[in-house]
Amino acid sequence: MSALKNDLLLKALRGETVSRTPVWMMRQAGRYLPDYIKLRDKYSFFERCENPELATEITVMPVDQVGVDAAIIFSDILVVPQAMGMEVQLIEKVGPLLPQPVKSAQDLQRLCVPDVHERLHYVFDALKLTKQTLAGRVPLIGFAGAPWTLLCYMVQGKGSKTFDEAKAFCYQQPAVAHQLLQMITDTSIAYLKAQVAAGADTVQIFDSWGGLLSPQDFEVFSLQYIRQIVAAMKEICPTIVFAKGAWFALEDMAATGAHGLGIDWCIKPELARQFAGSNITLQGNFDPAKLLAPIPEIEKSVKEMLKGFGRQRYIANLGHGILPNVPVDHAKAFVETVKAHG
Known about the structure:
Elements: H1 8-14, H2 34-42, H3 45-50, H4 52-65, E1 71-72, H5 79-83, E2 89-91, E3 95-97, H6 116-119, H7 121-134, E4 140-145, H8 147-156, H9 164-172, H10 174-198, E5 202-207, H11 215-233, E6 239-243, H12 250-254, E7 260-263, H13 269-276, E8 281-286, H14 295-309, E9 314-318, H15 328-340
Protein name: Uroporphyrinogen decarboxylase
Site (Transition state stabilizer): 76
Function: Catalyzes the decarboxylation of four acetate groups of uroporphyrinogen-III to yield coproporphyrinogen-III.
């Protein structure tokens, strides 16, 4: 396996001194890239995910075309519910659909904690092939959805702005909810460990809907399960936790032992650092929609963000996934401004 030529991301996560700020973008492998759109028009989503050659091609695209300092494997958080026994459909321009959502304890009998090597081998094959293709140019990031976020989809059955049915399920059937959350957690730990064995240099846990919970409920239904995952992984590789909207829990998330915390754009860098403390790396927090601004505005805002976070213990990124309508040259301007910043 090739030695890493660019290890800025890993150095930043370990708290080591970096020569410049590393940069990558959530959802960088995909929907805004014209070459990806050509593949999207030819193959279904799961065809793209389950074919290691296609997944590798998509994963490496932003390294070649945008110049980011890390690759993140092309996959989806919903491969975990799928591996656990749920039908998952991903419909272009509509979103995820799980036709038989979990509504009761009886529904859990349809699910299992799977053998991840049997059910998710295609992800590991893609990681191995991507690692070979990258040949040490940049680190490779693996990922999984946080248990709470996966429960949201498994109970609601589709995307939602509020996930009210998922929340009602947790409040009305807490024992069943916790049983499901533990099943997801156990699956995710095995899945992430296997991703590292296949070549991932670091892993990120995406809690996209953590911010829908109150501080008390975030601990009960989300953080206690994230804590288990971080504890299982932290001796194996650096871990990043990204809980969108859950700025109120930055101090508690930092205490999990994670190496990095993703930050959305709704909190000032200085306040995020104050909450998280000085012993953890922060990642973020550019508003993805701001990549639609004129390039001079993007450059100005990126410099302000970099000044706010400082160079050490920081990874430049977006505060959520890149939008499909962002021009590639605007994404490049974001990356190149970070790289040029002295």
